[in-house]
Amino acid sequence: MNNLSGRSFLQIMLLIGLGSALTFGMIYWRITNVPPTTAIVIGIMVGLVFGVGIGYHAQEYALSLGSSGQPGDPSLHLQLLLGRMGYRVETRMQHMMTFKPTLKAGLFADRIRVEFLGSQMNVSGPRHHITRLQNDMGG
């Protein structure tokens, strides 16, 4: 799983935090007519909170899951669970699948990659969705 590089917490926090800080600061300044320094400070505080929250939930997370004990093909069970979360199959190879998010998965959702190794599955994707998948599979 080391060859799959995703977005880190810091990358997401900086991108989302700076973008929302600038946007909120500008809007707040234009609506309230407060001094620009006040709007900048409030924008940075809002951006920091928003960036940390999104950064935690959308950061890349990897997990190794064993056989879920479900009868049949584990990839079909995985497809069903991820389909309920708003993901659809993007690519399917012999030992690997990639799932692409739909809007149902959320605005900050990213692709989920699954590598099948015998009875083990290495799953990587956004932390929020991977931990939810782990709970749904009983892991």
List the helices and strands and how they pair.
Blueprint: H1 9-32, H2 36-58, E1 60-65, H3 74-85, E2 87-92, E3 96-101, E4 112-117, E5 120-126, H4 127-136
Antiparallel strand pairs: 1-5, 2-3, 3-4, 4-5
Helix pairs in contact: 1-2
What can you tell me about this protein's structure?
The protein has 139 residues and is of the alpha+beta class. The protein has helices spanning 9-32, 36-58, 74-85, 127-136; strands at 60-65, 87-92, 96-101, 112-117, 120-126. Strands 1-5-4-3-2 form a 5-stranded antiparallel sheet. A hairpin with a 2-residue loop joins strand 4 and strand 5. Helix 1 (9-32) runs antiparallel to helix 2 (36-58). It is elongated, with a radius of gyration of 19 Å. The two termini are 19 Å apart. Mean pLDDT is 84; it is low at 1-5.
State the main characteristics.
22% strand, 5-stranded antiparallel β-sheet, alpha+beta, disordered N terminus
Largest sheet: 5 strands, antiparallel
State the low-pLDDT regions, or none.
Answer: 1-5
Task: Give the rounded overall mean pLDDT.
Answer: 84
Strand arrangement in the largest pleated sheet:
1-5-4-3-2
Query: How many beta-strand elements?
Result: 5
Q: What's the overall geometry?
A: elongated
Q: What structural category characterises the helix and strand content?
A: alpha+beta
Oligomer: single chain
Number of helices: 4
Classify the beta-strand content into a percent band: 15-25%
Radius of gyration: 19 Å
State the helical fraction.
40-55%
Q: What is the first-to-last residue Cα distance?
A: 19 Å
Order of helices and strands: HHEHEEEEH
